[in-house]
Amino acid sequence: MDAVFLAVGSRYDFPEFGGIWEMSVQIGSRVWRVAIAVSTIMVLIFTFAASTPALMIHQPGGPRGPDGALCSDILLANPSVTDGVYNIDPDGDGGSAPFDVWCDMTTDGGGWTVVFQSSDPSIWRTDNGTPGTGEWSHNFYVKRFPMDEVLLHDLKGHRFQIVTGIPSEKLYGCTKGDNGMWWNGNLMNGDSAFHLGVHTSEQKKQPNGYVIISRLTSAPGCLHDLRGWGFGHLAFNDNQQGWGWDSLNLGPTVFAIGVR
What is the dihedral of CA 54, 57, 63, 68, to 10 degrees? Predict the structure, then answer.
């Protein structure tokens, strides 16, 4: 069968890719359209339409539509997805532009949109770093999106705590969850330390150096000397920043915080 090449020429719809060269190939009665982008790193994505199958090129990090509203939506649509960076659009059309996040598709069934992963609590509620690379944080304060749970994950210790019944408007506050645990996301700065994490209503008085996740003045309900997990101050120990699990000091620790 003879093939007829119909050259279309060059066009530059995506100049950040270095330009796109298009060519049409006619084989019999079918016309195949080929678009090739010039870039240093390219991923070939084959898409097939009923009348004009096409070869498309996509550069990671370039313009593309969102994979889902949140990581939980992505997992629901495709249960075989794995941990990694995905593009999401939590507040939908008309809101903030879609952006990349790290999705934890493993812990407790997966579907967690990781909004923070760092040993530095001061970057909570900021846009800082690159998901999947080192330590990072996202500012979801002005966004409203469907969520009901918060995850605090000690990555090194491979353990986690979950607080249920926390809507998006309470993510940066101090709220008692449906499961009796408290979520403290207001990042109170007191006693020379930031306070961020999970605690119970149980007082936890231990020898000097135990980690207090909440303070009396941080927010209603976030009381003093409570059993907790996350960032807090070291009690009676020169008021230093602490990283605790069940109130025991771990030393500098990377915690991940996810929502779903």
Answer: 70
Residue in 61, 60, 63, 58 with CA at minimum distance from that of residue 46: 58
Q: What does each C-alpha distance from 144 to 67, 72, 90, 92, 105 come to in angstroms?
A: 18, 15, 7, 10, 22
* Residue ranges covered by each domain of the chain: 3-58, 71-259
Is residue 194 packed enough to be buried (19+ CB in 10 Å), middle (13-18) or exposed (0-12)? buried
Q: What is the bridge-based pairing of β-strands 99-104 and 84-88?
A: antiparallel
CA distances from 186 to 27, 116, 120, 123, 260 (A): 63, 14, 15, 12, 19
What is the C-alpha separation between 183 and 194, in angstroms, rounded? 14
Query: What secondary structure letter does DSSP report for 98?
Result: P
As a whole number of angstroms, the distance between CA 138 and CA 71 comes to 14
Query: pTM for the full model?
Result: 0.72
Q: What are phi and psi of 141, to 5 degrees?
A: -60, -40
Burial of 133 (0-12, 13-18, 19+ CB in 10 A): exposed
pLDDT band at 101 (very low <50, low <70, confident <90, very high): very high
Q: Is the dihedral of CA 156, 124, 174, 218 positive or negative?
A: positive
Average pLDDT, the chain: 75
233 closest CA partner among 194, 203, 182: 194
> Token pair of 200, please?
């119970």
Say which residues have a Cβ less than 8 Å from residue 243's Cβ, sequence separation at least 6: 119, 211, 230, 231, 249, 250, 251, 252, 253, 255
